[in-house]
Amino acid sequence: MSKWRQQVSKWMMQKMDLPADVVMDLPRITMIGQLHIYIENHRGVLAFSNEELKLKLKQGVLVIEGEGFLIKTVMPEEILLEGKISGVRFSDQQVQERGKGASR
Amino acid sequence: MKAGWNEKLGGYVKIAVVGPGGNQFLNDCMEKRLPVWDIRRVSESSFTCSLPLSRVKEARAILKGTKTKIRFIEKKGTPFLVKKLWKRNGIIIGLTSFLAILLLLSNMVWNINVTGANAKTEYELRKAAAAIGVKKGKLIFFLPDARQLQKKLTDQMDNVTWIGVTQKGTAYHFQVVEKELPYKPPVHGPQHLVAAKDAVIHDLFVEKGQPLIRVNDSVKKGSLLVSGYIGKDKHAKLVSAKGKVMGEVWYQSQVEIPLSTTFSTYTGKKTDHHFISFGKLPVPVWGFSKDDYKHSTKSRDEKNVRFLKWEIPVSYVKEQVRETDGVKREYSAEEAEKVARHMASQDLLKKLPEGAEILEEKVWRKSLSDGKVKLTMLYLVIENIASVQPIPIQQGE
Q1: CA angle, B333 as apex, B328 and B338 as ends, to 5°?
Q2: Which residue, of A24, B114, B252, B340, has the greatest Cβ tally within 10 A?
Q3: Is the Cβ pair A75, B38 closer than 8 Å?
Q4: Which of B2, B40, B51, B62 has the highest number of chain A CBs within 10 A, making it the mutation to test binding with A?
Q5: Where, by residue number, does the polypeptide cross the bilayer (chain B) (predicted)?
């Protein structure tokens, strides 16, 4: 059922010219150089340390790597991270149990 | 989010979250829309973050479910600043009370100077001024202003001609001009009595001198009534003529009285309003009752507040609203005439010298126009018409 729904929304996005993040509930990531990263539409913090931030998404996990991280703001579905960002990576790893995934 | 003015105003705390449930805490905060910012990992099991003071309780409630503890690191914002300042309240209280006392002292009477008066008058003046309230240590707000003071004092003191009151800061200065009561010379030297006015002699009583007129004689102004020369030829002598010569004198006076007059009287009801005005903005401090008088008059009294030698744009304003009563008076033509006649005779008596009396009064002309009664009255008055004329002494006969 959900697979069918996903296909419908993908089709809508392509045919009707609707923004993908709205239609498909995907994260929207905005970066300013290496300094700031702004992620909308996330589903919670999985792990957070000075070098890594793992965010739960609707599907999969977003891993942000770098150094000197400082979360400037957290709001439901929005997060603003400051620091020196060296990489943003999507990983398909299974969602970890909440609360367990502390830092490395 | 950097702590904005909004957060600073309400106060915020920086806390350390210690324990394995740190991420859970963050996620719960997000869910409950509890604003948290500046999250930094400190060690593997702890991080620091900031949250508003007003929501610390909620944060504690969230923590209860997790295996974490919090520790307060810093307290920032107005509430804490105020608390900190309050610790130094001695200074603040001292500073404000110093200013208050200085302000109070700037508005007190400190000095009263009197110039131009002898010791007795000065003592009396100081006493009269003290009775009005001008004393050392009195607040200037509650004293009448210099002009009123001047009028009151001049009215009260009867042995001075004029008192000038000037207020310079905290000092009052009275300048006095003393009355020089005219010295009445005793009657001496030879003199005649002459007529002061055109008159018909009604009665005469001569103590000294040679009367030259009789009752019912008509005299002109300046004519000799009682001569200072007595005796005949060789026995002639100069004396100081003395006596009373009552003469009948005609007076004419005009009065005008409107048939209807409206005039307002105070009913005795009044409302006071007190303000402290800053610049042009009056802030009411006392007397909030509404005055719903139909007719009223308003008087306003403003006193400036001084600070040391300067006048500051703060003043104390007292407003008095007095209820008035519009009274309309109507006269009929006869009533008006009667009143007019009474008024005219009262008026005349005021002008006449002592001992004079009205013998006869006549309405000479009467007219009614424009709602006014106009009367021209004639009065026959008996008064002393004798006035003194000294006789120049001729030397070397």
Answers
A1: 90
A2: B340
A3: no
A4: B40
A5: 90-110
List the single residue in A47, A70, A80 with the smallest CB-CB distance to B23.
Answer: A47
What CATH code would you report for B5-82?
A: 3.30.70.120
Predicted ipTM of the assembly? 0.71
> What are residue A54's DSSP bridge partners?
A47, A63
pLDDT tens sequence across B268-310 = 888 888 888 888 888 888 887 777 787 888 888 888 888 877 7
Residue of B12, B27, B55, B62 to mutate for A, most A C-beta atoms under 10 A: B27
**What's the Cα-to-Cα distance from B230 to each of B144, B225, B394, rounded to whole Å?**
64, 13, 17
Domain regions of chain B by residue span = 5-82, 111-178, 187-259+331-397, 262-328
CATH superfamily of B111-178: membrane protein fhac (3.10.20.310)
Q: What pLDDT score was predicted for residue A98?
A: 44
Q: Give the integer Cα–Cα distance in Å for B178 and B213.
A: 45
Q: CB neighbours of B262 closer than 8 A, spacing ≥ 6?
A: B326, B327, B328, B329
Question: Could you tell me which of B188, B196, B195 has the C-alpha nearest to residue B241?
Answer: B188
Predicted pLDDT of residue A102? 41
